[in-house]
Write a structure and sequence with these properties.
Layout: H1 15-32, H2 34-38, H3 41-60, H4 64-87, H5 93-106, H6 109-112, H7 120-134, H8 140-145, H9 153-165, H10 174-189, H11 194-214, H12 219-243, H13 253-270
Helix pairs in contact: 1-4, 3-4, 9-11, 10-11, 12-13
Amino acid sequence: MREEYRHLSGTAENSKQALERLTEILRILRKECPWDREQDHRSLRSCMIEEAYEVAEAIDNSDGQNLKEELGDVILQVVFHSLLAEESGEFDLTDVINGECEKMIRRHPHVFNDEGAKDLDKVLEKWENIKVKEHRQDSYAERLRSVPRALPALIRSHKIQKKAADVGFDWDVTDDALEKIVEEAKELKGTATHEERTEELGDLLFSVVNVSRFIGVEPEAALEAATDKFVARFKKMEDMAEETGKKLEQMTLGEMDRLWDEAKTRDDQSKVVV
């Protein structure tokens, strides 16, 4: 290591020193690394999203070692964006952390101001009310628009529907929401153009999310589970094809359908508790 950077070797003894070390490393990279010099908030946007998803995957896999690594990558992104803002005179890392501290104190009056509301429902209600006041959302439409467009579409639609339901704009029972799925499916079937299909498919997906909210299921998690199940079942189907000496690409659709049904049957049998 170059002599002027030798003090950066080794590990920090506490979180304060660790954050200072990371910040100094990024300052150096901004000056000396051609790639880091070229970055801005926009170019780093996808990196932040990817790192957040990798944290989520580490959590899903109960992989503590990987979670530690991915959280480090997220912290790097936070520090990097803060340094970019500092360079343009907008704010710095201290402002970011202080702002978050103030927000946490402000949104938890039941803890820091002893205002009661100890049960979960009251806490969430107070949190939402404080959040609305902070963002000066005078209309309910503004509350819907405040849900970030950058969120995955299923999560965003779920949040928007919940906010609309808070003012009573909602189905009375789950069956009504289910009937809406049937209605939207029929409208999709009757489309003739790509634009119509896009619109009606969106309506159908939105209706499915509505049902997920009624039955208390996170739509993103449900779709992820369904996708994982498809991949696992597809692998079984491929293995069964190889057992017969064939490859999937050599089989007809009918043959693959039969293997798929067999894979499904095996899955169902494995769920039976003896």
